[in-house]
Amino acid sequence: MKIYTRTGDEGTTSLFGGTRVSKDDIRIEAYGTVDELNSFIGLLNDSFVEATQNYFLSEVQKRLFDIGSSLAADPSKFTLSSDIRDTDIQVLENAMDTMDQLLEPLKNFILPGGDIAVSQAHICRTVCRRAERRVISLGRVAEVESAIVVYLNRLSDYFFVLARYIAHSKGVNEVHWHPRKKD
Question: What is the rounded distance in angstroms from the CA atom of residue 86 to the CA atom of residue 130?
């Protein structure tokens, strides 16, 4: 099977259901950003080796694939549920609470850096925030499951805590932001 179809050469693509839309359609932006996040999570997962976190990140990738599939469906033809459940959100919250117990209380703003995996976790956080914004934009013109927005919101928080946890587990100092001193 050839991967290329040449059907997108004119700047359009197909949703699940066959409807063709512009490649810069907000629906494409939403699920494309979720896909981008999924790729960055794969990179993070490959750069930080800890069995529990690696398994957890793999599960997150599966949920994001479910979300992307749901967003890629043409709602006028059929609906694909993202299958995001309250328990998925609770799992993220529990993971953050568990990691947070090991961390020093946050007293400064944190800058990305200090270690490649820490920085990659921050990249995941910022791409996740963008995915959330794109899904919210889509929600202004089409129906979007509210659980998707909640999941993405909580997931970006998770990546912030994960970045701190990675720094802690690797013995790396967090990079704190301090305002410039007044002249």
Answer: 22
E strand intervals along the chain: 12-14, 20-22, 109-111, 175-177
Q: Which domain holds residue 171?
A: 15-177
The length of the chain is: 183
Residue 24: count other Cβ atoms within 10 Å of its Cβ: 11
Count: domains in the chain:
1
Dihedral of alpha carbons 145, 92, 167, 173, sign: positive
Q: Is 118 or 19 the better-scoring residue by pLDDT?
A: 118
Integer angstrom CA distances of residue 26 from 71, 79, 131, 140, 180:
10, 17, 11, 10, 38
What pLDDT is recorded for position 8? 64
pTM equals 0.92
CATH at 89: 1.20.1200.10
* Contacts for 154 with CB less than 8 Å, ≥ 6 apart: 89, 92, 93
Amino acid making up residue 52: T
Residue-wise pLDDT tens digits, 149-168: 999 999 999 999 999 999 99
